[in-house]
Amino acid sequence: MKAVVPTRIATRIAHLGTETAFAVSAEAAAFAAAGNEVYAFHLGDLNIPTPANVVEASFKAISDGKTGYCPNAGIPQLRAALAADVSASHGVPYAAENVAIEPGGKPVIGKFILALMNPGDEVLYPNPGYPIYESQIEFHGGVAVPYGYLEGDTGFAIDLEALEAAITPRTRLLVLNDLQNPMGAECSPAELARLADLAVEHDLTVLCDEAYFDIRYEGKSASLAALPGMAERCLILYTFSKKFAMTGWRLGAAIGPPDIVEVITKLNVNDESCPNHFIQYGALEGLTGDQSGPRHIVEVLRERRDAAVAILSETPGVRCFTPDATFYLFANVSGAMAAKGITSVEDFRRAVLHDTGVSVCSRVHFGRVQPGERESYVRFAYSGIDTSRIVEGLERLRAYLSGDRVEA
Q: The domain 11-49+293-402 belongs to what CATH superfamily?
């Protein structure tokens, strides 16, 4: 008789989502392992070295014995330096007590929700957007309420009318990813002002995910937290991953009102005790030392953006905006799909991979597709692929969508 194995997995796990972009990565890896050329536009990692002064400061900290536990909220020097840096960029007077250092930016999402959301509360989150918002809200017993974006003549804008209509007496939190993944979208001053009004009117606390705040090519980044009366309503998600090409180092921060930061620090005690000790000295050097490294990172990414946009803008059936920040292009491929007779954006994505080697994520990897969506999009991440490879891969894509023969 077959043994009956009891169900051991907690029921809450059924509500935990994932990043399906990693499944795209696995597909691309399998395709490459079969001997095919792959142009990896699917993951938002960086293949640019971490600035040397950051690396050297971290190694020195190891040599100096900074390898044990440290304060749960991070070393005081880094908290103070980050508070000063963000105060200068945002025009908001933050101090060390406003900062909790975290093992990456992503933990701030879950800790924000744990600290402020009760089961059954509703949380507004961007869709398309980073899929972990939706996952964490539902895993912790909240109701994930999506808000969308509208494609205009020059870029994407939040559908503010739909967002406002989605607010109910149970709405407690708003997640705002300005300089957005996957769209590269940026709020206008009018959008930020309207969001601030809604937050005050409905007593909402806001997670300002500003992971791409410093990956900026033109203009100046602005924060909802900088608007009058909003600093006490906003928790900023900060990460060292993008500005300093430190994705694998896993270091970030929560910056906001002391009462929220205090709870997040208590969660640090329960989850990981403290952030990595010696890496914080590297981050401290990154903030206070030579800034040529971050400037170089942005210039490399600018070159890649310009190369990608130049080709995509000449590719039949593809509509692509030029973002002023982030390292993503969210291209409308509805026309290209129609020309190829393909109705599913995932089928299109796979066809592009197998016929050109270009690997991208599609809209479905950034939250559940919402009723009424008519256009189809794919995301090109250019942070982990060199300019020469960008040109080679996207020229193959252009040839494929133009009906030309793609060279093997």
A: Aspartate Aminotransferase, domain 1 (3.90.1150.10)
